[in-house]
Write a structure and sequence with these properties.
- There is one protein chain.
- The chain has 104 residues and is mainly α.
- Helix 2 (26-57) packs antiparallel against helix 3.
- It has helices at residues 6-12, 26-57, 63-97.
- The protein has one domain (23-97).
- The protein is built from three helices and no strands.
- The two termini are 44 Å apart.
Length: 104
């Protein structure tokens, strides 16, 4: 095996060398990572709601801090709605087209 040149590059950059041998196309990569992304979005929602709640409780009557806490909570809820709608759009596309995207 030649360690220099095109053969070495072709050998080094293969799906199996990168740990991606189970993915045949972009769709399978997206299908594999979509549940992870949705789970991370749920954890981010929880973290932002917790942060907003703590800021709201510790605002101590300061209007500026109270408005900042409300903004954090509002943005977290808006983000949750976007993720929820996105999830259901994916589920509807799965049903209509008869394909499995998320594996749920």
């Amino acid at each position: 095996m030649n360690i220099f040149g095109k053969e070495a590059l072709a050998f080094a950059i293969t799906p199996s060398a990168l740990g991606l041998s189970g993915f045949n196309d972009l769709g399978s990569v997206v299908s594999a990572f979509l549940p992870v992304i949705i789970s991370l979005a749920g954890l981010a929602l929880f973290a932002y709601l917790l942060l907003g709640g703590i800021k709201y409780l510790t605002s101590g009557g300061d209007d500026k801090a109270l408005m900042e806490a409300r903004k954090i909570i509002t943005n977290a809820v808006i983000g949750m709605i976007i993720v929820f709608i996105s999830f259901w759009i994916i589920r509807i596309v799965e049903t209509v087209l008869g394909i499995s995207i998320t594996g749920f």
